[in-house]
């Protein structure tokens, strides 16, 4: 059996399970193997010099201090099929949009070595990105925190909120304010027609409100269609989850933005963060045109001069350059040089093409343009937990204590007894059939007489055996440190021990208010400020969905009571119900949803017209129909009142009829005395 010292094969195997980090501003390849976990060595045993191009083949590493059989036999090989499968999965795709052709994505899928960053003049990241990825793969505490971020921040979908809710009260006032702001901006720019008043009239507001209502409906349909198909091989939610995973693991994430022939955004492509590096800021400022919001539903184009940055992605012997999002220059995809136009670029190299744009997401660092992961301060805790796991794993192979010891005193075992004992333990002590088998031991005495009698004793060693894993408290403390770096409660990290309902709700509410919602707001701001503004979206804003941290049953009961007593209108209750059920309810344009339910019920019972639902409110034709109907109702009411007055007059003015015999009645008019 080989020795268990520091130079033995077990120590080498233990080292092979531990990733090596480059913790300083070293070269991209320093101190870390790209696919294996040991640095490549030359035939002489010295580490291979970084900077050369290595052939694309399976990475192998061996134990230099192991036994001859291990050193001369087949070495441990990292499966190349995994990387080939990933390359096939993330193959470069082309897309054709109706009416225009989309640019081919310039980014390359992950899975190959990047060796030319220094030659291109890229900035060195504070921490090696691929080493950070390896740490997450080998850590027992990082992955669950990263998954909790990706699920709770980016995993609940999205919705579009209107800039102006045309069905709400005060929509006409907001439209009038937007028209006034647009006219003031046009007056300052000198484009307002002469004689146009700064404030719009009521007729102009009514006509414009109906026009923008139709435009908003069409724009929402366009937005929903775009985000449903903005990614090649997955949904937009899946793209966000991958982006969050890269941001939390390496501190950086990247999207490649593809445009169609008209220059509009057509697709987003996920770019592996460990394959991209930043180039220094350009020395000369570039004129950039940006859209800024001047009112709730309109933009203005502002021209500024900014120093922009280019990016480079290296895969094996290939390298591709990108430009910053919003950069209007024509940048070479192969060299990173700027050209006057595409024709000049093609004239220099027919195989070259214009570089696409890249959106950079990062966790801010005050000392580097790169982002730094939030857990990097607990790096020693992560490495310590990994070493603890290795120690416990190797205990069963190298430090196991036998359960029983055979002690012989006053003599020695015969030569045939030792192999007999070994064979009996290995073959005849397993299974219920051998439960009562007896082991007979024989020993030769060391001398003669009574003092030379041999003594055999079986002594259990269970007290000396390790009953549980080592360093459990140390590992638990390390897990808590990593969770504290993410500011996540234990429940979200998969630890559900010793929790009741109130504690769990308090922890989820804390994480939602203090961790997840600020991250969502930051992402939504970036998307609205850059992407939607570039697309010219005027009437809608992107909004990430949130998880329901409230009790649905309690929330439903509270909303029902508030609506029933008239504190909330039915429309406000439906809005809160949308948060409970995580869906957007259909808009109801009737007036009864905008007033307390008690007033609506009172109007139905008393027959008061003002309290009944009124349809077609808000349009000129509807108002005209309502006025005509009101006039007819007034006319009918006047006729009804006139008929009532006539009947009343007739009832009080009629004389009493007294029956008179005809003979006496005739004498009244004949002139003869009776």
Automatic annotation (TrEMBL):
Q: Which family does it belong to?
A: Belongs to the phage portal family. PBSX subfamily.
Q: Locations of Basic residues compositional bias?
A: 31-41
Pfam families in alphabetical order: Phage_portal
The residues forming the signal peptide are none
Region spans: Disordered: 1-74
Return the protein name.
Phage portal protein
UniProt source species: Corallococcus carmarthensis
């Amino acid at each position: 059996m080989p020795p268990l010292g520091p130079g033995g094969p077990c120590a080498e195997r233990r080292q092979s399970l531990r990733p090596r980090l480059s913790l300083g501003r070293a070269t991209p390849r320093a101190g870390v193997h790209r696919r294996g976990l040991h640095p490549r060595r030359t035939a002489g045993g010295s580490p291979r010099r970084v900077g050369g191009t290595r052939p694309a083949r399976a990475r192998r590493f061996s134990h230099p201090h192991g036994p001859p059989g291990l050193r001369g036999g087949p070495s441990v090989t990292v499966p190349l099929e995994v990387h080939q499968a990933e390359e096939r999965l993330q193959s470069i795709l082309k897309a054709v949009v109706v009416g225009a052709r989309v640019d081919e994505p310039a980014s390359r899928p992950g899975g190959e070595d990047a060796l030319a960053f220094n030659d291109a003049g890229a900035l060195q990241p504070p921490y090696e990105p691929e080493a950070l990825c390896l740490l997450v793969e080998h850590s027992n505490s990082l992955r669950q925190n990263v998954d909790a971020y990706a699920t709770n921040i980016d995993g609940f979908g999205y919705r579009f909120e209107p800039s102006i809710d045309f069905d709400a009260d005060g929509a006409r006032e907001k439209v009038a304010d937007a028209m006034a702001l647009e006219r003031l901006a046009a007056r300052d720019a000198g484009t307002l027609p002469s004689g146009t008043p700064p404030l719009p009239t009521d007729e102009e507001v009514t006509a414009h409100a109906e026009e923008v209502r139709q435009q908003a409906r069409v724009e929402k349909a366009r937005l929903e269609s775009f985000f449903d198909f903005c990614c090649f091989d997955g949904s937009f939610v899946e793209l966000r989850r991958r982006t969050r995973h890269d941001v939390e693991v390496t501190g950086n994430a990247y999207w490649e933005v593809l445009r169609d022939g008209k220059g509009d955004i057509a697709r987003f492509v996920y770019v592996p963060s460990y394959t991209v590096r930043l180039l220094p800021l350009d020395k000369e400022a570039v004129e950039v045109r940006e859209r800024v919001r001047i009112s709730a539903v309109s933009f203005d184009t502002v021209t500024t001069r900014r120093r922009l940055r280019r990016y480079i992605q290296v895969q094996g012997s290939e390298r591709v350059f990108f430009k910053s999002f919003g950069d209007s220059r024509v940048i070479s995809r192969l060299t990173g040089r700027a050209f006057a136009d595409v024709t000049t670029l093609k004239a220099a190299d027919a195989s070259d093409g214009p570089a696409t744009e890249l959106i950079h997401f990062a966790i801010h660092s005050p000392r580097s343009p790169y982002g730094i992961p939030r857990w990097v301060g607990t790096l020693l805790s992560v490495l310590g937990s990994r070493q603890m796991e290795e120690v416990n794993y190797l205990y069963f192979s190298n430090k196991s204590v036998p359960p029983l010891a055979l002690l012989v005193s006053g003599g020695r075992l015969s030569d045939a007894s030792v192999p007999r004992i070994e064979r009996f333990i290995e073959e005849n002590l397993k299974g219920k059939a051998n439960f009562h088998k007896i082991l007979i031991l024989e020993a030769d005495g060391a001398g003669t007489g009574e003092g030379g009698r041999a003594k055999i004793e079986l002594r259990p060693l269970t007290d000396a055996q390790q009953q549980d894993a080592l360093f459990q408290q140390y590992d638990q403390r390390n897990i808590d440190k990593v969770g504290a770096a993410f500011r996540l409660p234990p429940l979200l990290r998969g630890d559900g021990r010793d929790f009741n309902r109130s504690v769990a709700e308090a922890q989820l509410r804390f994480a939602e208010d203090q961790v997840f919602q600020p991250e969502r707001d930051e992402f939504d701001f970036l998307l609205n400020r850059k992407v939607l503004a570039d697309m010219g979206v005027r009437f809608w804003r992107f909004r990430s969905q949130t998880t329901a941290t409230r009790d649905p049953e309690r929330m439903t009961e509270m909303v029902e009571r508030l609506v029933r007593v008239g504190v909330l209108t039915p429309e406000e209750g439906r809005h809160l119900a949308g948060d409970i059920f995580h869906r957007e309810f259909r808009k109801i344009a009737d007036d009864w949803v905008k007033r307390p339910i008690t007033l609506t019920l009172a109007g139905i019972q008393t027959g008061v017209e003002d309290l009944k639902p009124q349809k077609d409110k808000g349009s000129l034709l509807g108002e005209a129909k309502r006025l005509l109907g009101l006039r007819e109702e007034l006319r009918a009411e006047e006729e009804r009142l006139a008929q009532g007055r006539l009947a009343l007059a007739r009832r009080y003015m009629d004389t009493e009829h007294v029956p008179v015999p005809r003979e006496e009645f005739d004498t009244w008019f004949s002139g003869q005395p009776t």
